[in-house]
Amino acid sequence: MTAFRYQAVQGSGAGVAGVVEAEDRRSALRLLAERGLFPSSLEPCSGTPKPTGTAESTAAAPSQPDSRFRIGSGIRGREITAFSREMSALLDAAIPIPQALEGIAAEESNPALKALVETIARDVRTGASFSAALARHPRHFGSLYASMVRVGEEAGVLPRVMNDLADLLEHDDEVRGEVVAAIAYPLFVLGFGMVTVAVLLTVVLPRLFSMLEEMLETLPLPTLVLLRVSGFLSHQWPWILAGLAAGGFGFRWFLKSPGGALEWDRTKLRVPVLGGLIRAAALSRFARTLGILVKSGVSLLPALKIVEATVGNRVVAGQIARVAEETRGGDSLAAPLRKLAIFPRSAVQMIAAGEESGQLADMLGKVAQIEERHLRARTKTLVSLLAPVLILLVGGVVGFMVIAILLPIFRLSHGIR
């Protein structure tokens, strides 16, 4: 246990000072909140003994990772999710926003996130609202995040809204992790095969073929083809790498242009199997995010505008913008969705039933679950097809190389006989 010296304000407005013992700063803030105290300062007492060699200190050590062993100094999405969950718990314990932010910052091991949270806490201390302070960092807290927090502040339900946000972010992390885990093996097979073939063509085969050319007047056709490819790669690899780098920069510039980004998103939707995956992911995010916003008290039109910027595909975002325009004219949500054929008919019927019964948020959540189920099923189908195809492709290339190497060796053995 650590002793913390605090200065706080009671509910009556009177000032009070004292010492509280807790495992860490966050626990101390929670204890003070339970006593009805609102701390203005909380510092560890000097000379506080720290336990050494005990089972408690050994068990607690892993929860405080040393930032020196951290790779990179950026802020990951999962860390924003953890921040949201911690803020939800602290606000639910009636801890004021500045103290909650300072408690999280004091325990944070990532220097970048620590500095970000401290900046937000400082902005709140100087009079900015929590949502406005978050909106100043759109790279980490997008329009969806800031808008939901603002609604929570205005409605006086910020702890519940933060809990909904944490649920949404955790769900996104879970779905993203499942997709990444599903495609990891095919990508590993493809990458390993490409590296193996590149090493053979540029390092091993040129030396072997130089020996074979000296020993044989004519080489078999597969060997000649492989020899030409190997010679080209081994001599031109700097230009090939430069061309790939230039192509990568050009493609990145193309994606940054509005027209190029829109065309790329449209092309992705046209790809067989993959297009269905992208559409299912965008629609599930649309339904889940819109459901959370409606549940939090955001009216339908502003909620659609927020969701438009979060679906991750400009073509689908354009369709949602048309839905918002139709809704502005007085239509229900289901009518433009049915007209534009964005969702399957069964999903639109569920949304219509939710509007009629006043349970739109719940129905949108169920639609999101259905689309996510489709996403998982299509991902499994894609992976089950992709892995064997990549193995056959890599095996075919390696097999051709083996045949091209063995044919001249067999011819040499015939000549020796």
Secondary structure blueprint with pairings:
Layout: E1 2-10, E2 15-22, H1 25-34, E3 37-44, H2 55-60, H3 77-92, H4 97-107, H5 111-125, H6 130-135, H7 143-155, H8 158-215, H9 221-256, H10 258-270, H11 274-296, H12 300-308, H13 314-328, H14 334-340, H15 345-357, H16 360-416
Antiparallel strand pairs: 1-2, 1-3
Helix pairs in contact: 3-4, 3-8, 4-5, 7-8, 8-9, 8-11, 8-16, 9-16, 10-11, 11-12, 11-16, 12-13, 13-14, 14-15, 15-16
What labels would you give this structure?
single chain; 417 residues; mainly alpha; Receptor-associated Protein; three-stranded antiparallel sheet; 3 strands; 74% helix; extended
Structural description of this entry:
With 417 residues, the protein is mainly α. A hairpin with a 4-residue loop joins β1 and β2. Among the domains are: 45 residues; 100 residues, Receptor-associated Protein (Up-down Bundle), CATH 1.20.81.30.
